[in-house]
Write a structure and sequence with these properties.
Elements (H helix, E strand, L loop, with lengths): L1 H29 L1 E2 L6 E2 L13 E6 L7 E8 L11 E7 L27 E7 L6 H14 L2 E11 L1 H12 L6 E5 L16 E6 L8 H12 L4 E6 L7 H5 L2 H9 L3
Parallel strand pairs: 5-6, 5-7, 7-8, 8-9, 9-10
Antiparallel strand pairs: 1-2, 3-4, 4-6
Length: 262
């Protein structure tokens, strides 16, 4: 009788052991924590990494639009080595002077001129027709999010002149994308400022701007302040329409940007 009881006890322990092992294997297959967020992901879901050309390169939209067919990308040093790192990305919208068919013009203006050495990916589309269009920019946004190793909580938007208009427009229509906006000597729609209530904004403009009146920025900044938004405003006493050279050469701007996240 004692032997029989002992055998039964052994069988029970063996059965429990295999049941626990089996459950453990099942759980490990069905729940895979994301290495960065700790959030479980679906079985088989993997983060992919595609090496990129470091520095500046020209690209074409996979799905070109009437407004955007080409764009410039700046990839920082270390991108291909840091395969597990998600990079902050800044979208830069040029002004009316670069509009057309010459993609090289985008590399010669504004943010493009100071990007070298900075720890951001920069994406700078070429507007080849009319004016910046948020629908076309959304196509670009999706392609960048799908093809580059970016931190979706650190996506920034900036632009100058026509690109300043584009920053206010796209940024307010799709504020869910952006951790911060930097519109320079542009203008926007006052009634849309409520959509930016929770998006940090740093605005730049020159008081003597003969092309886009400084009151355009002042009005939007005042509305954001009224709404209690996180807004900074830098107004230069002179400089005319070119407020961007000094703005993009402000070291504190990039420190500030990196502190902003969704």
């Amino acid at each position: 009788m004692k032997k029989s009881r002992s055998k039964k006890i052994v069988y029970v322990f063996v059965a429990l052991f295999f049941a626990i092992v089996s459950c453990s294997k099942t759980e490990s297959k069905s729940i895979v924590p994301d290495p960065e967020t700790g959030t479980p992901s679906k079985p088989g879901q993997e983060d992919t990494f595609t090496p990129q050309t470091v520095g500046f390169s020209n690209k074409k939209l996979v799905k070109p639009t009437d407004i955007i067919t080409d764009y410039v990308v700046y990839i920082p040093e270390g991108y291909n080595e840091k395969k597990d790192y998600k990079w902050p990305v800044v979208f830069f919208l040029h002004g009316i002077g670069e509009r057309g068919k010459d993609i090289s013009a985008v590399r010669q203006v504004g943010l493009s001129r100071v990007m070298k050495g900075k720890q951001f990916i920069m994406v700078a589309p070429l507007c080849n027709n009319d004016w910046w269009n948020s629908a076309a920019l959304e196509v670009l946004y999706k392609e960048v999010m799908d093809s580059l190793h970016v931190d979706k909580t650190k996506v920034y938007l900036t632009g100058l002149s026509m690109g300043g208009y584009g920053t206010w427009d796209w940024g307010s229509l799709h504020s869910e994308h952006f951790a911060a906006l930097v519109p320079i000597c542009g203008a926007g729609t006052v009634s849309r400022m409520s959509r930016l209530q929770h998006t940090p904004v740093w605005v730049f403009h020159s008081a003597d701007d003969p092309t886009v009146n400084v009151n355009e920025s002042r009005t939007l900044v005042n509305e954001l302040k009224r709404l209690g938004a996180d807004v900074q405003y830098t107004e230069y006493p002179d400089g005319g329409h070119d407020a961007w050279t000094r703005a993009y050469n402000t070291p504190e701007l990039y420190t500030w940007l990196l502190k902003q996240h969704k």
